[in-house]
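Hi support team,

I've been running sequence recovery on a batch of backbones for a student project. Most finish fine, but this one hangs at about 90% for roughly twenty minutes before it completes. I'm not sure whether the input is malformed or the queue is just slow. I've pasted the structure tokens below so you can try to reproduce it. Let me know if you need the job ID as well.

Thanks,
M.K.
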């Protein structure tokens, strides 16, 4: 298996990879559907070792330490809500909590410091109650291999951060623990899409969420299930 390096552009927390992007990148090397388990922060701009297991899973390591695992996930059950219209998602994004108080303003997916054509700028705001969020998203041509469609790892990234804002709306520090993505079909660049997120459940510091991506016709194109973990607060 080849080594894997995450470019500094695709950061989440300062100095580390965005979890959704990393999950999509690992999944692209798997021969089966996988659930990505992030065990340590993923460093940027350094070669990482990617090893395949007999069951189709993968293990990402550096200097012998496991950073992430791709575990076979044959079943993927996720009930997806009906999406809002693009205009309704645009209105919801105006209430994105990160505009007033963002813990990671340079995040590749939801960072408010990232310019168009650099970050994804997926700003998910409250929509419809019940711990749901929505955002518009128009992918630029730089997210394609030249075939006019968005690469799977960027779709995976777009489905990451909205889940955190569906889990909680108060910017409590959290990290992505597990992520399973299913891409039904890739959306086109320059297509006005909608991303939604919703909370499935909570148990202590753990929050289970779902996210989904819809094309300009309101058709479901990708969905993800994630576990976010609230960091322990210092005394």
């Amino acid at each position: 298996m080849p080594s894997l390096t995450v470019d500094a552009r695709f950061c989440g927390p300062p100095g580390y990879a965005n979890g959704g992007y990393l999950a999509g990148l690992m999944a692209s090397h798997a021969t089966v559907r996988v659930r990505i388990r992030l065990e340590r922060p993923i460093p940027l701009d350094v070669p990482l070792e990617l090893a395949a297991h007999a069951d189709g899973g993968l293990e990402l390591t550096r200097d012998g330490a496991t950073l992430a695992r791709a575990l076979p996930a044959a079943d993927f059950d996720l009930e997806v809500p009906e999406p809002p219209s693009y205009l309704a998602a645009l209105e919801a994004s105006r209430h994105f909590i990160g505009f007033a108080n963002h813990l990671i303003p340079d995040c590749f997916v939801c960072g408010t410091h990232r310019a168009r054509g650099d970050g994804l700028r997926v700003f998910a705001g409250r929509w419809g109650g019940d711990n749901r969020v929505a955002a518009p998203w128009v992918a630029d041509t730089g997210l394609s291999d030249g075939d006019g469609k968005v690469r799977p790892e960027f779709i995976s990234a777009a489905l990451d951060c909205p889940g955190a804002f569906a889990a909680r709306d108060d910017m409590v520090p959290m990290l992505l623990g597990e992520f399973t993505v299913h891409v039904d079909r890739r959306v086109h660049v320059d297509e006005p899409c909608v991303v939604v997120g919703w909370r499935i459940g909570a148990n202590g510091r753990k929050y289970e969420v779902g996210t989904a991506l819809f094309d300009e016709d309101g058709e479901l194109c990708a969905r993800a299930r994630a576990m976010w973990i609230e960091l322990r607060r210092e005394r």
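--
Follow-up from support: It reproduced on our side and the slowdown came from queue contention, not your input. The two ends are 43 Å apart (CA to CA). No action needed from you.
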